[in-house]
From TrEMBL:
Domain Glycoside hydrolase family 2 catalytic as annotated: residue spans: 277-449
Assigned keywords, A-Z: Glycosidase, Hydrolase
Taxonomic lineage from the root: Bacteria, Bacillati, Bacillota, Clostridia, Lachnospirales
Name recorded for this polypeptide: Glycoside hydrolase family 2 protein
Family membership noted in the UniProt record: Belongs to the glycosyl hydrolase 2 family.
């Protein structure tokens, strides 16, 4: 079917537009272009039932309307609309008639329009997106039509939606065989002979073609298989993400009936417990991260450039795989992963038959699961980046016989629809234990007590235990207790049947089981589907030294909205996970929500063996010695900064992250001593020194020879604005984005992360301000505001192109600083 986006020129209103609401005056409409996240434009309030789960953004009911002319010549064709994502439920009306609906806010779905269209006239598409049932998500969900909308038109004989499936049947360095399976549909009552033509190309060069003739009987649908042999194929892998284009055309004589284009990659997957995961014959360890679907200060608005940027930044930080948590990944991110070379674990759902929130998808899961599995496979099939399907995340059902049966059913359905990929499920041991939980905890705690009997508790310890029910279980999250918990026989009993149905045993926070699983199930592989960021050194050692352990997915590589506060360093006695306004961000990403890497990201890159130079991380000198909250997801409250005015002569904690066996720290040219680093020391050497402005230098040594250095310099207190832009030329498509950062630097360009300024932005010309803000997890304000404070020295504006050629002028102003302006060019 011929496909085109219809994202432009929609009308948007908060609330219902029913006949009753119209009688009462009705809502006010405003013009919007899609994709559009309605939630991010709502006012955050401490009273919303969503609380920290969505970062205190409320849900709501929203209406989208588009008027479009339907030509008379479409009367003998078929017309569909594809919605790539509408949150949470969607009802689609065509000219006032309900044409289709959807219950799962993360899946793409199609609505057939033929019955409801008026040909040769203007038609109305009306979408009611209902996200008013709070609570329904454990993270920031977004609201409304937050992904692309596409119009599909098929002639009398056409290729249906998702009708081209491309499979690599055989592959080597010298040759490959690609099979193209095309569905062809005849919507007439006549019989007609057609030709199906397939062409394959790579970087614009034709590399293969094939034609077959097919007789299409009345109202029939046929599957046409064509095999094409290729010489010296360019293989797809994370290191070499080579893509091919496949074009399928249908002809009746010389008449072109339909044309579909898909991109694909040629690669071979292999999996076993002795060699792990192999791509094109080479073992690949999954340097993975979990991500949610929002794009920070623009909310859940899913635009191509935003997804590409996020994917690229994660790849540059050392990751080679993404787990879509905890729902199917959008098409724009899948395309980005294909191009960038990022492997994908695509996940089905966060819940099955047990609610995690009163209004979540559990109420519909069993009636919808077959449909949703089919949708995810159709969406993913031609994407070489997708290697794994996850049937669910932390599903309590898994510890029961019925849950194990459901898991087997889902995994089997994935295999039946797509035998080329592998299955897993992200198992949370605490949830699967159910009623056995108390026994396991008691056994673990008893085994760890000193031989003298009950350990005496201090009064302060008792007070802390009472602060939060969750905190009392922290001992089970990391360390010896966590490993004993993970390996308890009752844990094995609880997860055994469910794990046997999946190709790869997926374990959330059960690192202690990774080696044990090899003893219990020598033919199975294991992956850490979710793990603590601060545990990366131990985790990666296990991954490197065990072929059956495929890799690790940290929680999480990129920060996100919602689940607010789980990683915030509170210095006022607040406990994490307790739900405190105005928390808006989880604050546990290696990369913050505007795209800047935090120190743990560089530690991880060193642990992965990808960074040669050392790195300096300084615990906030202004917080030295202050007691703060701590969870297993948090490492240290540190920055790569040596600018702390007012703290001269005060103590400072400095870490050097390094792969080298030895490092040396210099302050203003004076050596503060050499220390051991490298893998034996957790890739970290720690110094407690006195803050003195100037230059802080780290030098790495191997075999006594210098291998690299890293320097921090103190910035002057007088700062100015410096502008950095990603995207100085944009397409006039209404969707392209520029990411413009204003940061505080001194006269020499040294960044000052300590200084703070209110920065005001203005955008004029052929574009609009999509969002403006910083990475502060506790900020007050809206990303629609034009004024934000810098946080850790930065604030960012996301500018969206219009649909006309021209220029966009972006201006930044701050008190005491000279204003800065830049011009972004917009071209068709």
């Amino acid at each position: 079917m011929i496909r085109k986006k219809i994202n432009r020129d929609w009308q948007f209103a908060k609330g219902s537009t029913s006949m009753m609401s119209a009688f009462m005056g009705g809502p006010k409409f405003e013009a919007v272009n899609l994709p559009h996240d309605a939630m991010v434009h709502e006012e955050r309030t401490p009273d919303t039932a969503n609380g920290t789960q969505t970062g205190y953004w409320p849900g709501g009911l929203y209406t989208y309307v588009k008027k479009m002319d339907i030509p008379m010549e479409w009367k003998d064709k078929t017309v569909l609309i594809e919605f790539e994502g509408v949150y949470a439920t969607a009802m689609v009306y065509i000219n006032g008639e309900l044409a289709g609906s959807n219950l799962y806010g993360y899946s793409n779905f199609y609505v057939a329009l033929d019955k409801y269209l008026k040909y040769g006239e203007e038609n109305e598409i009306r979408v009611v997106a209902d996200n008013g049932a709070e609570k329904n998500s454990r993270w920031y969900s977004g609201s409304g039509i937050y992904r692309n909308v596409n119009l599909l038109v098929g002639s009398r004989i056409h290729i249906p939606a998702d009708g081209v499936r491309i499979t690599t049947l055989d592959v080597s360095k010298d040759s490959a065989v690609v099979e193209v399976c095309t569905a062809v549909k005849n919507i007439t009552r006549g019989k007609e002979k057609i030709t199906v033509e397939v062409t394959l190309s790579c970087e614009g060069t034709l590399v293969g073609t094939d034609k077959v003739g097919v007789t299409m009987f009345m109202e029939a649908e046929e599957l046409v298989y064509q095999k094409i042999a290729l010489k010296a194929p360019k293989l797809w892998s994370p290191d070499t993400p080579n893509l091919y284009d496949c074009t399928v055309k249908l002809y009746a004589g010389k008449e072109l009936l339909d044309e579909v284009r898909e991109h694909f990659g040629i690669r071979k997957l292999e999996l076993d417990a002795e060699h792990g995961l192999r791509i094109n014959g080479e073992q690949v360890k999954l340097r993975g991260t979990c991500i949610h679907h929002d794009n920070g200060i623009i909310g859940a608005t899913t635009l191509k450039k935003a997804e590409e940027r996020r994917c690229r930044q994660m790849k540059e930080a050392g990751f080679n795989s993404i787990r879509s948590a905890h729902h199917p990944m959008g098409k724009a991110m899948l395309d980005a992963c294909d191009r960038v070379g990022m492997l994908v674990m695509d996940e089905l759902s966060d819940m099955w038959t047990n609610h995690k929130n009163a209004n979540d998808f559990a109420m519909h899961f069993l009636e919808q699961v077959d449909t949703e599995v089919e949708r995810i496979v159709k969406k993913d099939y031609n994407h070489p980046s997708v290697i794994l399907y996850s049937a669910g995340n932390e599903i309590p059902d898994l510890g029961t016989a019925r849950g194990a049966q459901i898991n087997r059913m889902i995994c089997n359905q994935f295999h039946a629809l797509d035998p080329s990929r592998y299955t897993t499920n992200a198992v949370n041991g605490m949830l699967t234990l159910g009623s056995k939980m108390g026994t396991v905890i008691q056994d673990v705690m008893s085994s760890l007590k000193p031989s003298g009997g009950q350990e005496e508790k201090k009064e302060t310890d008792r007070e802390e235990e009472g602060a939060s029910a969750l905190n009392s279980m922290m001992a089970l999250m990391i360390g010896p207790a966590a490993d004993a918990f993970a390996c308890h026989p009752l844990m094995t009993e609880s997860i055994e049947e469910a794990c046997q149905a999946m190709d790869i045993t997926g374990l959330n926070y059960l690192t202690g089981r990774h080696v044990l699983e090899k003893e219990l199930h020598p033919n199975k592989t294991v992956v850490g589907t979710e793990t603590y960021p601060a545990d990366i050194v131990r985790l990666w050692d296990i991954v490197k030294n065990n072929d059956h352990v495929l890799g690790d997915y940290t929680w999480t590589g990129y920060d996100y909205l919602g689940e607010a506060g789980c990683g915030i360093f509170y210095y006022d006695g607040t406990q994490n996970f307790n739900g405190v306004y105005p928390d808006r961000i989880a604050y546990i990403g290696d990369i913050d929500i505007i795209g800047y890497r935090r120190p743990i990201s560089y530690l991880r890159e060193i642990v992965f063996g990808l960074r040669k130079e050392p790195y300096i991380a300084v615990e906030r000198v202004d917080r030295y010695g202050m007691k703060h909250s701590q969870t297993a997801w948090m490492l240290k409250d540190n920055l790569a900064s040596w600018t702390w005015p007012g703290y001269e002569g005060k103590p400072a904690n400095v870490d050097i992250y390094s792969k080298d066996e030895e490092v040396e720290l210099f302050l203003n040219g004076k050596s503060l001593g050499r220390k051991s680093a490298g893998e034996a020391c957790g890739f970290t050497a720690s110094y407690e020194i006195t803050y003195e402005p100037g230059e802080l230098l780290a030098v790495g040594y191997a075999d006594g020879k210098e291998t690299g250095r890293f320097v921090l310099k103190t910035a002057d207190e007088k700062v100015e604005l410096q502008i950095v832009c990603e995207g100085e030329t944009l397409k006039a498509d209404g969707e392209d984005l520029a990411f413009v950062t204003a940061k505080l630097v001194d006269k020499d360009g040294i960044e000052n992360l300590f200084a703070e300024k209110k920065v005001t932005v203005s955008v004029e010309g052929t574009g609009t301000l999509q969002g403006f803000g910083n990475a502060d997890p506790r900020a007050i304000g809206s990303y629609d505001d034009n004024t934000w404070k810098t946080y850790n020295g930065y604030v960012m504006a996301v500018v969206r192109a219009g649909t006309e050629d021209g220029e966009i002028k972006v201006k930044f102003e701050a008190d005491g600083c000279q204003g800065q302006e830049m011009v972004i060019h917009v071209k068709a």
